[in-house]
């Protein structure tokens, strides 16, 4: 019993410290966060307290108003903190991967399934909407990356829909802060077992490629590469 209490006491400071750090981070980008949270809490509590006086139960309404004020403050704080975090991540390499990692249950994400020398990158997410390829980088350069990866997905899992998104603020692109919402709005066309089967097929392909033996040492004398730079796909 004593051990459980000690563990709980040790965990509480950690949570409070995390909340404090989140608040400081948010305040750097959102200077009015303190005033907004205070206003939300006071207004919510005030409304319920006023209702309590009108119906003759100010104590009960006050307690309920206090709980709901805390809940409303927490919700507003979470949303503004998320918005501030997206604002700081915007334009940084790997920002889209960070959003995909926190998209929620039912999605399996694989970062950087394709990349070029300019560090334009394509990430992959698999869920009930099918396969979603998310690219970040120069819009003109990522098109070829997306096209090649989409062609590969259509060849491997032809029965699964493949969507492609480009993260950015330009026309036809998806803003980082709207990426999660955009993906969750995609129509669900796969069942749970189909999602699992798709992930297994993609995972098997990855294992096959990583375990493929490569010849070591220099190319034998007299051996020539075929025209076109390599063997053609059949």
Automatic annotation (TrEMBL):
Region of interest: Disordered: 210-234
Keywords linked to the UniProt accession: Membrane, Transmembrane, Transmembrane helix
Pfam families named among the record's database cross-references: DUF4191
Residue ranges crossing the lipid bilayer per the database entry: 33-53, 59-78
Source organism: Streptomyces azureus
InterPro entries cross-referenced by the UniProt entry: DUF4191 (IPR025445)
Phylogenetic placement of the source organism: Bacteria, Bacillati, Actinomycetota, Actinomycetes, Kitasatosporales
The keyword Transmembrane is annotated on this UniProt entry: yes
Protein name: Integral membrane protein
């Amino acid at each position: 019993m004593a051990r459980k209490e000690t563990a709980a006491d040790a965990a509480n400071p950690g949570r409070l410290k995390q909340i404090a750090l989140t608040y400081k981070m948010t305040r750097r980008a959102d200077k009015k966060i303190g005033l907004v949270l205070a206003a939300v809490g006071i207004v919510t509590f005030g409304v319920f307290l006023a209702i309590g006086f009108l119906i003759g139960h100010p104590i009960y309404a006050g307690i309920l108003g206090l709980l709901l004020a805390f809940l409303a403050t927490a919700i507003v704080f979470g949303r503004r903190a998320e918005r501030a975090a997206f604002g700081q991540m915007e334009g940084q390499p790997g920002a889209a991967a960070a959003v995909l990692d926190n998209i929620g249950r039912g999605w399996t994400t694989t970062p950087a399934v394709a990349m070029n020398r300019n560090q334009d990158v394509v990430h992959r997410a698999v869920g009930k909407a099918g396969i979603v390829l998310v690219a970040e980088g120069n819009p003109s350069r990522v098109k070829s990356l997306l096209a090649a990866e989409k062609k590969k997905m259509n060849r491997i899992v032809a029965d699964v829909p493949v969507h492609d998104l480009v993260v950015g603020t330009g026309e036809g692109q998806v803003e980082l802060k709207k990426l999660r919402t955009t993906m969750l709005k995609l129509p669900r066309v796969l069942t749970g077992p189909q999602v699992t089967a798709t992930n297994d097929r993609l995972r098997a392909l990855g294992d096959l490629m990583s375990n493929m033996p490569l010849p070591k040492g220099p190319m034998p004398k007299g051996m020539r590469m075929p025209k076109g730079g390599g063997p053609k796909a059949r």
